[in-house]
């Protein structure tokens, strides 16, 4: 079954975990912008070298570079029958770009945007808990709340973008990993 999924959820919503389970279930790759960037840098591609220069200088990698790397990854054979996108698109402009990329590659558009819904206070609790377990001193409550605010501000328009196309499936992100996964599969009709 081919599935083209955009995974949406705040930091700490369980996107990474659920994304991996979806990979195993559908046998399609999970494409995370961070992973794709690191792979391009490691492979020494032209875009990878540009990305490395930006990262080494402590700058954010330019949108056009990120877009190029994502497009190259979407063009690889394993992504032809579907993919799970994590961390891209981050906003409505990137969602437009993604639609253009898929059209350029002769691929169908995104099937579903799966929104893992977790209450902000629960996210704060989870991230503080994770910070303590992993010894991440930078994850202070104020920093976490700021990350959630940024996420909410960027993602709300994305939910509208895919919502207008009838592609958003909202899934309650509370419960065991398997309970949440079952909800996702059910919402996808899989």
Automatic annotation (TrEMBL):
Residues 32-61 are annotated as: NMP. It comes from the Bacteria. It holds the Pfam family ADK. AMP binds at residues 33, 38, 59-61, 87-90, 94, 136, 147. It catalyses: AMP + ATP = 2 ADP. The keyword Repeat does not apply. GO terms for molecular function: AMP kinase activity. It is an enzyme of class 2 (transferase). Keywords: ATP-binding, Cytoplasm, Kinase, Nucleotide biosynthesis, Nucleotide-binding, Transferase. It is found in: Cytoplasm. Pathway: Purine metabolism; AMP biosynthesis via salvage pathway; AMP from ADP: step 1/1. InterPro entries: Adenylat/UMP-CMP_kin, Adenylat_kinase_CS, P-loop_NTPase. ATP binds at residues 12-17, 130, 175. Its EC number is 2.7.4.3. The keyword Nucleotide-binding applies. Monomer. Consists of three domains, a large central CORE domain and two small peripheral domains, NMPbind and LID, which undergo movements during catalysis. The LID domain closes over the site of phosphoryl transfer upon ATP binding. Assembling and dissambling the active center during each catalytic cycle provides an effective means to prevent ATP hydrolysis. HAMAP family: Adenylate_kinase_Adk. Belongs to the adenylate kinase family. Catalyzes the reversible transfer of the terminal phosphate group between ATP and AMP. Plays an important role in cellular energy homeostasis and in adenine nucleotide metabolism. This is Adenylate kinase.
């Amino acid at each position: 079954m081919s599935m083209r999924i955009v995974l949406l959820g705040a930091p700490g919503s369980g996107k990474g975990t659920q994304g991996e389970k979806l990979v195993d279930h559908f046998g399609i790759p999970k494409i995370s912008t961070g992973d794709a960037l690191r792979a391009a840098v490691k492979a020494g591609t032209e875009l990878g070298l540009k990305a490395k220069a930006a990262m080494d200088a402590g700058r954010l990698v330019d949108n056009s570079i990120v877009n190029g790397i994502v497009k190259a990854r979407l063009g690889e054979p394993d992504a032809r029958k579907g993919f799970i996108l994590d961390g891209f698109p981050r906003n409505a402009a990137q969602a437009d770009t993604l639609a253009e990329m898929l059209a350029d590659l002769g691929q169908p558009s995104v099937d579903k945007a799966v929104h893992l819904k977790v209450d902000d206070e629960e996210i704060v609790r989870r991230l503080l808990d994770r910070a303590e377990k992993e010894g991440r001193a930078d994850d202070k409550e104020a920093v976490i709340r700021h990350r959630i605010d940024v996420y909410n501000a960027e993602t709300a328009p994305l939910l509208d973008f895919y919502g207008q196309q009838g592609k958003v499936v909202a899934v309650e992100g509370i419960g065991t990993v398997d309970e949440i996964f079952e909800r996702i599969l059910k919402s996808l009709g899989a």
